[in-house]
Design a protein that fits this description.
Helix content is 77%, strand content 0%. The relative contact order is 0.14.
Length: 512
């Protein structure tokens, strides 16, 4: 007698250790987090194009401009580690939502500032908000994707940083052509509201179940050390490199950062264990990101001023001309994992640093008479170089830690970006300021000189504008050659240290 066949039961999809509900919507999660990342990056890239407009509207000095730009990156970098640790302990989704609220209020205040001090304070608050958002984006991605899909997800995440780099200058230029300078901040308010709305149903909850104690002393030592270091670098040209305040800043920075390392080494559950940097992938990956962003942030800070002050482009025209960097990053970053598979991490990273160095060398050769096409080729080189460096370096940093420490791992990844970026702006800006102020008859900064010339406050306005442009260009040439040399050094040293393959063993899933 025939036996009736039982209806086959559906076979559950293999989610590779990821919660099935999270696995099913992982790409929607990635999209939401990438939008959050774009907003944070736009907050940096849009201001670069707006610097001349801000200087004119608020009558800011060259030093105040550096603080307006660096206050965000500096506080961002200083708060990232404790913010990542708080997200690990109390919940990464909640940390991201808290950061969105702080960021939204801060950009609203920034859009209404009427003096440089108020804008610096608002930028500080923006940095705090961004510090809670950014590590949560990467740590939630790491916890939402199975191990074999993480390199692709992280590469897409890195590419969207390039999207922010492209949207920032264009959106800033368009807004400045039609609205007041504060619109470059106000545009983020509706975006924050959208992200808060999406975060409720889309983003999963995750945290570290071990609940390690917080580390407020370590956080204060790290923040204090970084603030002191950047303060000394920024204030050096104005107060003198051998001045007591500048030297004191360097001494305090060294003392606090050494104290941070010693304190963390003695803690049972440190916020950041310095011994992690002995891991070749973690240490070399963090260093590679620092090198890359030191050059990239410094480049945009100086180049956007060069395009507007020296070459006379409008904010929108300047924004369009820096797009090649971001487009190259967007196009090439998703392809980087394929190059890594075929050629290895070391060869891919070596090529990235070489291209970056070539791009900066071309920028260093540029003058007011150089065809803009050469500048755009240089930007393609730096963007492609960053695309080859960042995804593999980020994967090594976050892949070196277990999922329960994803917040701290992604925070370290982000700290290296922001520390490198803040130092790049500070060092690049200080080199230009030192060279510029060594010239007679051009004032304290190029913005002030051009403003005085246009107001008719000098005998020969045209000669003043040309002299100020030449002095500024001499400073940028030295700064760009320095960045080219650092990129070349990074390629030689780091490509020998970093492991040639991405992490191949999945960390423990506990606490994911």
């Amino acid at each position: 007698m025939a036996v009736a066949e039982r209806p086959s039961e559906p076979v559950a999809e293999d989610t590779f250790g990821v919660d099935p509900d999270v696995y099913a919507k992982r790409w929607l999660i990635l999209a939401t987090l990438c939008i959050s990342l774009v907003m944070i990056v736009v907050a940096v890239s849009s201001l670069n194009v707006a610097i001349p407009s801000v200087q004119e509207a608020l009558d800011a000095s060259g030093t105040e401009l550096q603080w307006i730009v660096d206050a965000y990156a500096l506080v961002f970098a200083g708060v990232l580690l404790p913010a990542g640790a708080l997200g690990d302990r109390f919940g990464r989704k909640g940390a991201l939502q808290f950061g969105l609220v702080v960021f939204g209020v801060a950009v609203l205040i920034a859009s209404m500032a009427d003096d440089p001090g108020q804008l610096v304070a608002a930028r500080v608050a923006m940095g705090v908000g961004a510090a809670f958002i950014m590590p949560a984006t990467l740590s939630i991605i790491v916890n939402s994707f199975p191990f074999h899909e993480r390199p692709k997800a992280i590469a897409i995440w890195a590419a969207f940083a390039g999207v922010g780099g492209a949207l920032g200058p264009i959106s800033s230029g368009l807004l400045l052509d039609h609205f007041w300078w504060g619109a470059v901040f106000f545009i983020n308010v509706p975006l924050v509201a959208l992200l808060l709305f999406l975060s409720v149903p889309v983003l999963p909850r995750s945290k570290n179940p071990d609940g390690h104690p917080l580390d407020p002393i370590g956080a204060l030592l790290a923040v204090g050390g970084l603030v002191s270091l950047v303060f000394a670098v920024i204030e050096g040209p104005e107060r003198g490199w051998a001045g007591p305040l500048t030297l004191g800043g360097f001494v305090v920075a060294a003392a606090l950062l050494v104290a941070f390392v010693l304190f963390e080494l003695r803690r049972e559950n440190p916020m950041l264990d310095p011994r992690l940097f002995k891991l070749p992938g973690f240490g070399a990956g963090a260093a590679a990101i620092t090198f890359a962003f030191f050059s990239i942030f410094g480049m945009f800070f100086l180049l956007t001023q060069h395009l507007q002050f020296v070459l006379g482009y409008s904010p929108l025209e300047a924004g369009v001309r820096v797009i090649p960097n971001a487009l190259a990053l967007v196009i090439m970053a998703p392809q980087a994992p394929k190059f890594v598979v075929r050629f290895g991490v070391r060869a891919t990273m070596r090529a990235g640093f070489l291209l970056t160095s070539l791009g900066f060398a071309l920028l260093a050769l540029a003058t007011r008479d150089t065809p803009i096409l050469l500048v755009m080729v240089a930007l393609v080189c730096t963007g492609t170089g960053g695309a080859f460096i960042m995804p593999a370096a980020s994967q090594h940093v976050v892949g070196s830690l277990p999922l329960s420490k994803a917040g701290v791992g992604s925070a370290v990844n982000d700290v290296t970006r922001e520390v490198g970026g803040a130092l790049g702006i500070a060092v690049g800006g200080s080199i230009v300021a030192t060279v510029y102020r060594a010239r007679d008859g051009v004032g304290e900064s190029i913005g002030e000189a051009i403003g005085a010339a246009r107001a008719g406050g000098v005998a020969d306005p045209s000669a003043m504008i040309v002299a100020a442009g030449d002095a500024f260009n001499d400073g940028t040439r030295i700064a760009f050659f320095m960045m080219a040399a650092l990129a070349l050094l990074g390629g030689v040293v780091l490509s020998r240290i970093i492991p040639d393959e991405l992490p191949s063993r999945q960390p423990g899933l506990a606490g994911g």
